[in-house]
Amino acid sequence: MAQSGHSFLIGEKLNYSAWFNFIKGGESSLELLGIEEINGISTYHIRSVTESLPFFDRFYKVRDYMDSWIDTSGRFSHRFSKSLREGRYRKKYSVDFDHQAGLAISKNNRNSIPDMVQDGLSMFYYVRTLDLTVGDIVEINYFDNDSLRPFLIKVDKIESVKTPIGEMECFVLAPYLETGKLLKHKSKVTIYLSTDPRRIPVMISNEARFGSLILKLESIEKPN
User: Fold this and answer.
1) DSSP state, 130?
2) For the segment 183-200, what is each residue's pLDDT rounded down to a tens digit?
């Protein structure tokens, strides 16, 4: 599938309201912090922050932070780190991807990886660069927690989504586990990606450990 040649804007920040089990309980953001070098390779540094609001902290405190360093040319991951707190659950993890050696290197493991491996953030930005049409199937090699999970993302349909910044026409993306055939919908994630050239993630719905989590776009901060 062809890339659109989209180049991301340094300083772009997407702000979301976070709905936990249909209650507005937090805020989230996706921000392109800048261009940094990883082992001499130019990368976009992306950061995701999700935090529950003070009143929600009393019931279920969420402090999720993720960083990804994405190749500025190929749009694949070179490094990924995360620090998660969701209620009593805690998780810290980081991994470096040595694409020349074909290895994912974490604190405890060295795993073989294919080309164009993606992490939990880089895959959003990779898909944003693609020329999409309804019916397309995007192949993703997703790596996290020392495990490679190839899966597919189907461009299911086009749907309008109302946001505080206006109604936006979106591609509805449905990820599936790759099992040889696209027989059964395995994932509980749905991504709404704007059809305009920016390909903004407008809404992300996910069934998480604590129930449902829906991120809804509230505002876009553009570079000065």
Assistant:
1) B
2) 344 447 899 999 999 999
